[in-house]
Q: What sequence folds into this?
């Protein structure tokens, strides 16, 4: 049996852009992706603190060091620029693997979306 557990979490970043006329996805600063262990194309869940929306999409690499968090396509309707979101990714593993697994959780600066030193 496999269970789905938290793998990665980017806690409380600010949406910097919403581009409705795009195929779909969320663009994330590559520094944040690396720190959280999220890869391009990975499915993530986005939780909007401001309006309670929860939705799934896939990740596109943003410019490294830019602080970019851009909702693209239909996801752009789920948040406004300035909203605070939490981005989470999950992984399937056995209960035995899950007992020893430690998710990567990062807490970027909420104003700049950059990693804290």
A:
């Amino acid at each position: 049996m496999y269970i789905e557990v938290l793998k990665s979490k980017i806690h409380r970043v600010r949406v910097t852009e919403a581009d409705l006329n795009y195929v779909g996805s969320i663009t994330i600063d590559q520094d944040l992706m690396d720190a959280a262990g999220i890869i391009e194309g990975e499915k993530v869940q986005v939780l909007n603190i401001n309006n309670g929306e929860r939705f799934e999409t896939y990740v596109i690499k943003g410019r490294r060091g830019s602080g970019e968090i851009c909702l693209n396509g239909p996801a752009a309707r789920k948040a406004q620029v300035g909203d605070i979101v939490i981005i989470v990714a999950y992984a399937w593993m056995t209960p035995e693997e899950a007992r020893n697994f430690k998710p990567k959780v990062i807490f970027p600066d909420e104003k700049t979306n950059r990693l804290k030193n």
In short: Residues 17 and 70 are 5 Å apart (CA to CA). Residues 3-106 form a domain with the Barwin-like endoglucanases fold (CATH 2.40.40.20). The radius of gyration is 14 Å. The mean pLDDT is 96.
